[in-house]
Structure formats: C-alpha cells, structure tokens
Amino acid sequence: MKLDAKALRYLTSEDFRVLQGVEAGSRNHEVVPTPLISQLSGLRGGSGVHRSISNLAKTNLIAKVKNAKYDGYRLTYGGLDYLALNAHQKQKVVYSVGNQIGVGKESDIVVVAHSSGSQRILKIHRLGRISFRTVKTNRDYLRHRNTGSWMYMSRLAAMKEFAFMKALRENGFAVPEPIAQNRHTIVMELIDAFPLRQISRVPHPEALYSELMDTILELARFGLIHGDFNEFNILIKEIADPSEKGKAAADADTEESEENIRLEPVIIDFPQMVSIDHVNAEMYFDRDVNCIKRYFQRKFHFVSDVPGPFFSDAKKNFLRNPGKRLDVEVEASGFSRKMARELETYMKEVGADGDAGAARDDLDDDDDEEDDDEDEEDEGDSEEEDTHQEPEVGSSSTEVGESAQRLE
Ligand code: ADP
Ligand code: MG
C-alpha cells in the first residue's frame, strides 16, 4: 500500500465530509450503508453526496461492498491516509509529501516537508497488513476482521509510539523529536542517518556496543524495554569530531581519518515497547540484548568479554536507582493499560513481530546485503494488496524533490 497524495488536492470539502462520514460509520458498521453516510456527513442528501461517494470510490478512498443484506461502502487504508494527511496539513504540520523511503511489515515511511522546507518523517501504521509468515494461522482471523479493528489498532500503534517517543525525548533519550500524531500516523523529525544494518565498518565496535547496552539498561532504569531493539531500529549518526586529534586524522586522509568520526545511535520504532513489569519482560530484555550481541558478532566480529547485561541487573538497577517511570507516565498521558493490552493481543494475533522477526530469520545468512525477500501474500483485497519487503533503507539521501506533492 503506497501513500498516494495526488488526488488530495482535487477533493472538495464536501468529498472530505463524506469521507469523514464513512470513517465515523466504520466504527460500528463493517459496511456503512449509503443512507447512513449521507446522515453522518452532515450534508443534505441528494446528488451532492452521491457525486462525492462516486468520486471517493473512483479514487479508491472508499470501496463499495455488496452485502447479502445491503450495499454500502467501507473506508480503505487510502481513505484513512487522506483523512490523516488532511489533518496534518490543516495543522500546518505537513505541507508537501515526498518519497516513500520505507516499507516495513507494519508501516510505511514517507518523507514530507514543512512549509519552511524542512523535511520530516511521516510514519503510517498499517497493522493488519498481512505478513506471509503468519498467513496460515491468520487467514481466518483476518477474514473476520472488520474495518474498525485494523483502523483502531493502527491508531493505537501510532498513539503508543507517539506517547513513548515523547516521554523518551523529554527524558534525554536519543530518539527523533515527535511532532504530531493523527489517526494511524505520526510525524517526527527526520534523522539524517542510516540504520546500523547499512553501516559496513565501525572503527570502534566495542564503544558502540557498550553504548547500545547502556541504552538498554538506561531504558530499564526508566521502567521500559524496547522490545524490537535491533540493527534496523538503530540509526547511526556520523558526527565529525572537531577536536585537534580528529582534525589531524582527517588531514592525514588515511585509514585513521575514520577516527575523527563519532557514531551516535538514535533509537526508533516503539510500538512494541513494554514495561519492566510486563510478564514477559525478561524474555523481551534478553531478546534485545541478544539481537545486538549476535549482530556485532556476525557483522563486526566483535564479542564482548563482559557477560550480560542480565535482566536481574536491570531490575536491581531499576529498584535501587529508579529514573522516572516512563511506563507509568505514558499510561497517565492517555495511552491506557487497557489500550496496551488490546494492541498487544492484536499484534500477536496478526503476527506483528516488528523487525525482530526479519532480523532473527536472517541470522544465518552470511550475506550482509539487503535480501530480496519477495515472499508475499495478498489479502484477497486488491486495494490493500501489498508486498512484503525488508524494512528499508538509507533515508538521508532522499530529498523531497520534484516528485513532492503539494497538498494545497
Ligand atoms: P517499522 O515499524 O516498519 O520497522 P520504523 O519506524 O522502524 O518502521 O522505520 C522503518 C525505516 O524507516 C527505518 O529502518 C529507517 O530506515 C527509516 N526511518 C524511520 N524513521 C525515521 C526517521 N525519523 N528518520 C530517518 N529515517 C527513519
Ligand atoms: Mg523498524
């Protein structure tokens, strides 16, 4: 599912009200009956509403569903994207839409721009998009899903990610600045960096390794476990070292010139974050630690001679020297425990296992290049059809260039 912002400029305000009507109706109806759409859009019935319905259906923002009992429409992911983009545009968060730089299993990543020209990242959550790995177990479940559940769950994922990103940022963690959240989308700062996955040489792997382990422990001190801490979700900023030693190394222009580059990790991707009190906290903690251990061993041939860190150390550290409890803070901010449970259950059911699944499956693979993993399944639902790809890609070189779609 690609974000396609083209039609946005041509939609009238009536079209938008009708689209909003379909959205509102979807909360209680899998297929929203046409008379209800008229009513919810707040427009007086008649040809205007019907014209809008037909415009929206033509651009695949809603889809006609013939039902045994009645005919009606349902909102598509495209329609939901438009509603969210329109809201971001009204709030002056997004001015134009540029290139899509990432297609994950559960999200799309798009470069957008503010009216000042500064670039930002729009992350569109797409829970319920099927992963080929879980097709068999989930086919039945997904057949019975209703529009409300994928919409609601994708919104929960966006709310959760935004709430955690905000709490982490406010407490000094290196994460992108969260800017706005609407429906199933968030807008955040664009980090000019590549994922660790794409970094082929690290001059001092031991330093980066221990910084990442410290981050895992520091998160635990604040009551949190990332839950998907791996080479796709760690962006590595390369910062020039302005010190004399750094300059000398740069001037020498030798192997040593790498010495003047400092690597600064920035952590992303938070929908799977859990509290240190979670029943499976230890498993998530160990998984995060082991992901990094294995990756460093395989890619940089680095094995630490310090064992751990272990969950028991993290827990002791947390109890003895607690930072603010961000798990509790996030709950208080409106992303409730009940929502967290609902999202977790759904993510398990649809096999949403973040990048960790890809990283784990990929461990025996000696080839460090991106794999062309083309296995896929569609949902039997053409406009939501999608290909599975590994999470991409170096974003830093992507410009909001000629292909940018102005929204107004
Ligand atoms: P997913 O849940 O699909 O894994 P991520 O949030 O991990 O989504 O983003 C997928 C990819 O998009 C990342 O690996 C990274 O390359 C890129 N990306 C995501 N957020 C940003 C950002 N704020 N700045 C730069 N690149 C980003
Ligand atoms: Mg990711």
From TrEMBL:
Q: Where is this region: Disordered?
A: 349-408
Q: Which reaction does it catalyse?
A: L-threonyl-[protein] + ATP = O-phospho-L-threonyl-[protein] + ADP + H(+); L-seryl-[protein] + ATP = O-phospho-L-seryl-[protein] + ADP + H(+)
Residue spans with biased composition (Low complexity)? 392-403
Q: Name one GO molecular function term.
A: metal ion binding
List the GO cellular component terms: cytosol; nucleus; preribosome, small subunit precursor
Essential cofactor(s): Mg(2+)
Q: Signal peptide position in this chain? A: none
Q: Which Pfam families match?
A: RIO1 (PF01163), Rio2_N (PF09202)
Q: Which GO terms describe its biological process?
A: maturation of SSU-rRNA
**Xref: PROSITE patterns:** RIO1
Q: Tell me the enzyme class.
A: transferase
Keywords assigned = ATP-binding, Kinase, Magnesium, Metal-binding, Nucleotide-binding, Serine/threonine-protein kinase, Transferase
Check the record and name the SUPFAM superfamilies matching this protein. Answer: Protein kinase-like (PK-like), Winged helix' DNA-binding domain
CDD domains reported in the protein's UniProt record: RIO2_C (cd05144)
Q: Which residues form the RIO kinase domain?
A: 66-320
Which Gene3D superfamilies does this chain map to?
Answer: Phosphorylase Kinase, domain 1, Transferase(Phosphotransferase) domain 1, Winged helix-like DNA-binding domain superfamily/Winged helix DNA-binding domain
Q: What is its EC number?
A: 2.7.11.1
**Which residue intervals are annotated with compositional bias (Acidic residues) in the record?**
362-387
Q: Which PANTHER family match?
A: SER/THR-PROTEIN KINASE RIO2 (PTHR45852), SERINE_THREONINE-PROTEIN KINASE RIO2 (PTHR45852:SF1)
Protein family per UniProt: Belongs to the protein kinase superfamily. RIO-type Ser/Thr kinase family.
UniProt protein name: Serine/threonine-protein kinase RIO2
Organism equals: Penicillium ucsense
